[in-house]
Amino acid sequence: MPGSQSFLRQRKANSPSIQKKHSKSGGATDSDKAEKGSDLQAPQSPSREEEVVWGKTPDGKGEQSLRADNVDDSKQVIAVFRVPTTHDVITTLLNPGYKKSHLDLLNLGLLGFQIALYLVLPRHVSQVFFFIYFAFWRAAYDAGLGWVLTKQSKKKWIVKEVQRRGWLNEESRPAVRNWIRKQLQDKMGKDYSFDELPLEYNTWLLFRQLVDVILVNDFLSYCMFAFSCFRIPEGLSGVVHVIRWLAGIALIGFNLWVKTEAHNVVKDYGWYWGDCFFQRGNLVFDGVFELAPHPMYSVGYAGYYGLSLISGSYKVLFASLAAHAAQFAFLILFENPHIERNYGQKKAIAQRIRFRSNSEVAGPSSTTAAVATPEPGVDSSTPAITEGDSATTEPELETETEIEEQTIPEFNLPNKTKPSSTIKSQHSRHQPKLSIASSVSSNAGFVHQKKQPKALSQHDLLNKYFRRDTVTLRNLDLLRATDAMLVLVITYSASLALIPALSPKTTLILHYFHALAWVFIHYVGLGQVLRAQSESKFLVRHFLKNYHYGERDVGEGPIIEAFTNWKIIYNLSMCMTYVSCLGLVWKSYSLPNDWGVGNELLCHTMGTLLVGLHIWATMESYEVLGVFGWFFGDFFMEEFPAHLEYTGIYRYLNNPEAMGGAAWFGLALISGSKLVLSLAVVKHLANWWFLTNVENPHMRKLYGDSLRQDAGFVKVIKNVASKNAKMLESRADRHVPELKRVVTEVKGTFDKVLEDTAEAVEEFLARSGPKFSEVMQDTKVLLQQSRERLVITRVANDISSYDPTKYNVSIVPSSTTGANAFHLGEPITVKWQAPINHSRKDWIGLYRVGANKSTLVTKTSSLGMWLPVHGEEWDGHVPVGLERARHHDSQYGTVTFKGNTLPWLVGRYEIRYHHDGKYNVMSLDGPLEIYVDKPSETNFSTVRETLMRVVPLALDSDPSLIPLSCKTAPTGSGTQTSSLPPSEGTDAEGSGNGAGAHDDQEHLEDRDPDDFTFWSERQAKRICAAIKQVFDVDYAPEVVVADANLTALAKRILVSKELLSGRPPNTSG
């Protein structure tokens, strides 16, 4: 059942105290609303001793102005109304002393109809009928009421429908109004006045009549279904039957107690979701709401299972489980979002609130005291709020964590830059101080750094000890060694459990493909990763982008972590390659019956020698390479000297790794298996590909001319061949001239062919280079358009009755540039004009130029970049469905694209006005340009100034989010960064009754001027997109959230560019 109640009561004039009881059940549906306050103001009424409850409509006035009782009309008009007394459904429906409305009579008729059918129908027929009947009323409750209440909560849909249809309007529908008036007056007491109460309250009373019909019939139909399925289970002892009945009766009694106690707390206002219609002050909760979370939805349905025990039917039990699950769906899909939407206080992300020591909190005493502070929105002038004797008077237990404040040593930045391109964090010219309090100088335009330690905050500690840690499979990163091992363990464990018993032949084939997969993973997969690291520092970029490093570690941290994880993954892959191949050999090998028959002994001998050669070559290679070369350290670290020494086995061979495949050919001889032989060939080819496409190109790039062409073994072979050629030449002098002529001709032919081929290839590359670049650019555009084209175009059927010439849409030029050029994140205002009969579901979309070829119909998705002409007619992306009220329509207006409705990618865009929620284009304007200012030189000052422009725009210019240093600092464009007023600076990211829009004064005192916060991670993604487009550095949103400081982020960008490009940026300025 529904859930919550708020009370705004006034008892005696001399008892103005306010009692509040916050729910302790975390996340409870009803108790969540106990956190909220109201600014209702009601007049004191000293002459009245009875309890008075005051309510207020959402807009503060209702359908007409209302006056409070006992107040001189000529002196004071108030925006609240006195809430009449209501009675519960059981009393009004079953007590003969209360008048029955027509809806009550309908309800009683439906109840009597169910009882009559139960008595008349056969048992098997009644089971089917009442199951379907119960499913209907349960769907009417959870789906029907959930749907209409969601629309009422978001857009006041029920009230608007009643108003649109004129049911309570004496002029448009007098008969309907008089009928409704009589129905409500018959049910209410003497303190009810239909004509003096607002539309919202009377609509709620009418709505609760419908709710009564649904709830009562839902309950009775379930009981009839359970009674129809009643049976006595066989095979159970008498004691079990007694326990079953006693437990069932106890659960039903407990259910009734929970419902009764809950109704005593929430009253009819909460029972019938009155807060969707009007407001009634603060909430008071105790009793059953401290028993369990969501007691109305959880333990409040214990009677279902009690009746299932008594009936002894699994049908009843499964129907109860399904109905209870539907009720939880109602809770999740309507109740919780409604509470969050109306009462939720959003908490800013990355807010730094420093820990305080015991002395700061409690003074000289070591005992900390909890200080009660009034909640935002609670006005001391409101009437006393109590719940009478039901309110708990004992104080809540409040605890406070005491953490000693630590002082972190600070590190100064060096004054000079090193010419070396090698990056070392301890010597980086951008090495930031760990504790910085920054303020902007209005004259010099530089950051003044105060040498003052930054206090510890929970945000900084969390980012210090937690960095996208894997939780089950969330945040999984296969380039992180621990995650790769986790996936490996899960995969093998699941395979062992799921693979059925196989035949020997199938098992052998499975082992072959298993070994083949690891060969490709090790040589081709990791080879591609290593080649990308050589060409573009792929692994370092990955860790730099996705993981936050402290200010002291941002220089070397990504390199060290990338190399550390590479070493583990490479070693893991190599071991799995060996194990999988040996597994195939083991499955395919069988001991020979007679060693003297055939060539068995020879194959084993030769195979063993090849395995020994493999082991020797591997050991010799490791002896020369060491751990640095073994793990390809020169792909990652530049500190090591680029010097080659050909010693050991490398004195004879350039690539002794090629001899590493000898063992697999030897094992193929030993096992005599064609599968092992084919695997050895594939492994040898994969190793050759790795050497040719990964290692050799990197060696040439790194060592250049110092890389020798021929190894010692090759030189010896060439010398021997040269000597033999000379010997043959001396013995065949008579044939020498002829041979020389043939050789010269053949050589000349080959040289000519090679020269012509080289010229042709160079000419082809020169001509096709621009075309390749164009193809790559077109490919990027097509990939971008692929997301835009995921839309089903709908067109209107009545388009012929509208004149497109009467529609007009135009872009308001930017206040910064004076043209249709807007900085990335700058709000875009659009003026529209439409005829008086235009659809209330018209909307305006923002599209990239060229995405739509047609000017009549839009065929691509706006990707969320759209706004309704009439916002009240839409619920998110779905029209509410209200018919238009012509006298309220305007012929022109404006809409402003900001926040999530803006494109966060530079380019040229156009505006399109669409008809009736469809894709018919009535007018368009454009193009407009989205640009971003790129600094001419990259140094700390220019990077920080760019961020001071971008960050506030990405944060919607919300004063509670943007850095304090940006509120008064001029940007590079000469405008104020905080250009939007607070009312326009927040969008859906920060909405929520204005909760969280103010900063605590104590927090402001401790806040670094460069700190900023977020309402959601989407705002951090905008900053990441801007940084990518300005500085060509990729960051994950978690990294920006972890920094949440202009100075720290600017230094991170500088060090990242130095780390990735090797070109030291200009640090002047």
Describe what this molecule looks like in 3D:
By secondary structure, this protein is α+β, with helices and mostly antiparallel strands. Helix content is 47%, strand content 6%. The chain contains 27 helices and 15 strands. The strands form 5 sheets. A 5-stranded mixed β-sheet has the order 7-15-14-9-10, with no helix packed on it. The protein has a 3-stranded antiparallel β-sheet with strand order 1-2-3, with no helix packed on it. Helix 4 packs across helix 5 and helix 15 packs across helix 16. The longest helix is centred in the C-terminal third of the chain and has 53 residues. The protein is extended and about 135 Å long. The relative contact order is 0.08. The N terminus and C terminus are likely disordered. InterPro entries: Phopholipid_MeTrfase, Phosphatid-EA_MeTrfase_fun. Belongs to the class VI-like SAM-binding methyltransferase superfamily. CHO2 family. Its EC number is 2.1.1.17. It is found in: Endomembrane system; Endoplasmic reticulum membrane. One of its GO terms (molecular function) is phosphatidylethanolamine N-methyltransferase activity.
Q: What shape does the CA trace take?
A: extended
Structural class: alpha+beta
Give the biggest sheet.
Answer: 5 strands, mixed
Q: Indicate the low-confidence ranges by residue numbers.
A: 1-49, 61-78, 361-451, 969-1000, 1064-1069
- Kindly state the percentage of residues in helix: 40-55%
Q: Which range does the strand content fall in?
A: 5-15%
With helices defined by DSSP (H or I, 4 residues minimum), what is the helix count?
A: 27
Strand order of the largest sheet: 7-15-14-9-10
Give me the count of strands: 15
Please, what is the average pLDDT? 76
Radius of gyration (Å):
39 Å
Task: Give the end-to-end Cα distance, rounded to a whole number of Å.
Answer: 65 Å
Pfam family, one: PEMT
Enzyme class: transferase
Subcellular location: Endomembrane system; Endoplasmic reticulum membrane
Family: Belongs to the class VI-like SAM-binding methyltransferase superfamily. CHO2 family.
